Amino acid sequence: KCGPPTLEEKETATATTKFNDVEEGAELPLNSEEVSSEPPTPSATEDNALSIAPPTPTSTTDEYIWPSIGDLNNRVRRLISTCQRNFKKEEQKLVQKAKKVERREKYEQFVRERERQRLEISQKKWTRKEEQEFYRAVTAYGVDYDRVSKTYNWTKFKSVARLEKKYDDTLTEYFRSFYAMCKRLCGQPLTEEEELCDFPMEMINEERARRALDRINLIVKIREETLNHPRLDERLKGCQISADVPDWWQPGKHDKDLLIGVSKHGLGRTDFYILNDPELSFREIVQKNLLSAVSGSFTTEMLEAAKLETTKTEAAKLDATKVEAAKLDAATTETVKTNAKSDVDKT
Prior knowledge:
Number of strands: 2
Structural class: mainly alpha
InterPro entries: CHD, HTH_CHD6-9
Radius of gyration: 61 Å
Largest sheet: 2 strands, antiparallel
Shape: flat
Number of helices: 12
Region (Disordered): 1-65
Keywords: ATP-binding, DNA-binding, Helicase, Hydrolase, Nucleotide-binding
Helix content: 55-70%
Strand order of the largest sheet: 1-2
Order of helices and strands: HHHHEEHHHHHHHH
Protein name: Chromodomain-helicase-DNA-binding protein 7
Domain Chromodomain-helicase-DNA-binding protein 6-9 tri-helical: 103-200
Distance between the termini: 182 Å
């Protein structure tokens, strides 16, 4: 029989071992005093053997019985089936999660694509207000062009024109088309690159086109050539006072600050941007004029207050004179009436 011995077999083997030990002890006693001269009788030997016989087990149990091969095979099959079911469940969960992620990614991609198309349409389609703001900014501020990198810097231009939503590439393409249109209206020759510019925009008249070209070229020349000239300070020393500048104008110093201010702020609202720029010397003139204006206004207010007080005093005197005259007239009238009444009574 395969497998470990059962409990019954173990107990039987133990009892047999003890019985054999007893029989051997009976044949060979350890103490010499117990040795009898007479050999033991067969009946006595049988009684002793019966008295030490192992007890038979009263109950049997299958607790420690090793399962059969069929039971083990069934157990293994159930374990494998359970593992496979759990694995399939986890695999299905992963597949469902992957499908959800894929659907979410497709939806987000669809939303991004629609947003991109909408932005492209909005970039190509300019409203009338945006075109007017562009014309105002390009004639007042001009454009910042870097000849080294051959690119336009639209950061300040966007804030001036309030066109923050437009891309740099869109503004570059629009400006090139606008500049080519102005040159075409003014009868100036176009380059090969300008001939290819066909950005859709509203046409303007020749006068506005010429004004835009003059402003753009002037500001570009100041930024790229005049301020970068190595002998600028030397040439500004030769500037002289003229009739179109105020008395406080210092030739050379204020002329350079004017060029820097135009390059920095453009030609729009120079009385606000250039005059109040803390980096230019015009701010000192503003502060001095402000102090003198405040003191002058204070003196004027005092004179006006004194005049007003004098006027009030004269008016009060005139009113008092009128009241006294009215009282005198009333008294005279009352006297005349009294005299007339007395004459009537006498009659």
